Amino acid sequence: MAKIAINIATGSLQQDEIIVGIDLGTTNSLIAIIHPDTKQPTALREHNTSSLVPSVIYFDETGNVIVGEEARKKLISEPQNTIFSAKRLMGKSYNDIKYNAAFFSYKVIDDNTGSLVKVQVGNKFYTPIDLSSFILKELKQRAEHILKTPVNKAVITVPAYFNDAQRQATRDAGKLAGLNVLRIINEPTAASLAYGIGLSKEEEKIIAVYDLGGGTFDISILRIANGIFEVLSTNGDTYLGGDDIDQLIVNYWLEQAGISKDELSANKEFAQAIRLTAEEAKIHLSTQDDFSKILNGDELSITKQAFETLIEPLVNKTIACCKNALKDAGLNVNEIEVVVMVGGSTRVPFIKESISKLFGKPVNDTVNPDEVVALGAAIQADILAGNNKDLLLLDVTPLSLGIETMGGLMDVLIPRNSKIPNKVGRQYTTHKDGQSGMKIAVYQGERDMVKDNRKLAEFNLSNIPAMPAGLAKVEVGFLINADGILVVRAKELRSGVEQSIEVKSQFGLTDDMLEKMLMDSITHAKDDIATRALVEARTEGEQLLETTERFIQKNIDRLTKEEMTESAVAMQALQLALTMDDKDLIHSKVEALNDISRPYAERIMDLAIAVAMKGKTV
Ligand code: AMP
Q1: Is 87 one of the catalytic residues?
Q2: Residues 87 and 172 in one domain
């Protein structure tokens, strides 16, 4: 069985078909390959341009999608049509990001539910998967243009702390861009591969990867043994990076010139110019002792020493994160054998020195810190292509395993190419009041609708005690043992009711069948994802109608006549939208109904709380 898993990645490849490595970053993305002549990992770039493609997407008024440097220029002039940092939204619900909502200058939909976020541009709604797929499509096209050959297979990197849903979302984005994603690997793993660490089976090491980019900071501690990279701990700050360093310089200059922040925000052009000058100063100070430039008649200058004093608190913050990561891994600082630097901001000498001092050893900084992750991904791609035969590859699942959820959608619990043995759990709930049973249908395959996948087993978790919809907590666990036998277990956590099933010979597929299932998933990716989006929108719409109806019935005397009429009209409009095949229409009607019901729902909630409090104090 294990052999088959490796064969999908290798056996079906034509002699010289290329597999690319992709770093899909928050600020910048890039693509790398093992150069066919030099055999060295190489970042792809058009003549005399940077290998970095800004992860920014601009939608022009005719509906064209523009990705990269051109899009970045629109950030200031057309913020509502220009999407940045889509990676921060991957696999997230609005609840997950609501405290950072102000960070996004485009419209992130607050649909008042726990479902995945969407972004609205004009009258269209996009998921973070759609957005990331635009970036990946651009990278694929660039690579094809440079290499003059089709690019269909890729390894994509994600942060070590990405959860299952975020990894799955990244995989889906690849699929939507027309890429067969052979493997999702951790960014710190890729970075260490780029330094040649972990490339031999005998090697055993504990390493720290310090990654300070434009907008995020991560520290990961990994243990490498037998060709396996185990993440011992991660820590960091998802809103700390080079942009904050630029901001510190801007503030320093504003103070010197006696310009208030209000004055600055009133003059967008000047604000943009001073920010760019601050970045220029920061980069200049990585190699020189002082910086000075005249902007709008003001002299903006800063010495290296002043710069270092300015950024010291920020560097100390990252050091505190490193210490926490060490603590979580149960390690002393002197147990770290290698420190790898990643991200453009680690070019600042003061940062290198501080981190080197913390770990008591020189840091690895010889590989370009902007490219190191993509280069490592290219090395992993080369291993998967079978060009590096000495390397041990882990046993992996050849196809994704999951269960059927609302609307016949496939919910993947174990993505394909996951390590075996493996254990994953996810919680589900009931959708109807008093629901006493839940069907658990297990499927294998890459398509979004279960009907297009292969059914492995089905059982019913019965005897769930009667409770209102959404209260039951059913934990579904998938366990694949080292022999590839899958055990599926479902347990209702409040009552302890439990049921399980063993699925044998699940991988009884020939290489040809596997290949066909994979190719089908790529060919149908666009339709599949469109269908999924429609089914999800419908499910959301249906659930909202149900809860609103129930809420109104329960609180009928607390609503005004206008509120009742407005709600009825909005509900009718949503009902009608549900009969049509237009997800954007459904989303806009959901939004409209939410906008109407939110104020009175909040009012009635507040009232209920007030009554409850009064009841307690009397
Ligand atoms: P990344 O997200 O890894 O591409 O890192 C981008 C960040 O690195 C941006 O904030 C850049 O301003 C910063 N950066 C690039 N070059 C330098 C340099 N020489 N010195 C300091 N920061 C740099």
Answers
A1: yes
A2: yes
Residues 46 and 165 in one domain: yes
Q: Which CATH number belongs to the domain containing residue 281 in this structure?
A: 3.30.420.40
Do 447 and 379 share a structural domain? no
**pLDDT at 545 (0 to 100):** 93
Q: pLDDT tens-digit profile of 137-180? A: 999 999 999 999 999 999 999 998 887 778 888 988 999 999 99
Query: In angstroms, how far is the first alpha carbon of the chain from the final one?
Result: 68
* Ligand 1 pocket, residue 376 CB under 6 Å: no
**Hey, whose CA ends up nearest to atom 19 of ligand 1?**
283
Q: What are phi and psi of 560, to 5 degrees?
A: -80, 165
Please say if 46 is a catalytic residue: no
Same domain, 354 and 472: no
Q: pLDDT tens-digit profile of 238-251?
A: 899 999 999 999 99
Query: CA-CA distance, 355 to 326, in Å (whole number)?
Result: 14
DSSP state letter for 247: H
The per-type count for the chain, helices as H runs and strands as E runs, is 17, 26
Predicted TM-score (pTM) of the model is 0.74
Q: What is the mean pLDDT of the chain?
A: 88
Q: Is the dihedral of CA 366, 368, 369, 371 positive or negative?
A: negative
Here the tokens at position 100 are: 């950072």
Q: Which of 25, 116, 129 is nearest to 68 (CA)?
A: 25
- Residue among 172, 211, 246, 371 flagged as catalytic: 211
